Amino acid sequence: MAVLDIAALHARIAAVCPIVGVSAGPPIRIDYESDATDEERTAAQAVVVAYDDVAAARDITLARLRAAASAWIYAAAPEHKQRNAALGLYSEAEAQAIRDAVAAGRAAYATAEAAVLAAQTVAEVEAVTYGA
Asked: Has this prediction a pTM greater than 0.70?
């Protein structure tokens, strides 16, 4: 599950409704100021729902990206070749080529992961693809 950025969520909710605080839950709980109107409380709940949707999209997308990265790495450098390189059974050039392939796959995942975590909407999250 994605890490809840409670400070960011608090700021988003406070922008639409006067609140005392937000509890990470689960479920996420909002403590409203006594003067919060029904409309403001509804807007605050909409922020939570949207935030939960983005968090869920992040979880799903990161799982998809991890699977794509793993598939790419194992296609470029199968497990037996990685193990043999680690055991010193290949020349230095062959071993380095395997290390480079694994590093490229990991770097591509890191780039995609950063894009997912920076995305602010479900559409932005779902638009992130893996590309090594």
From this structure: no
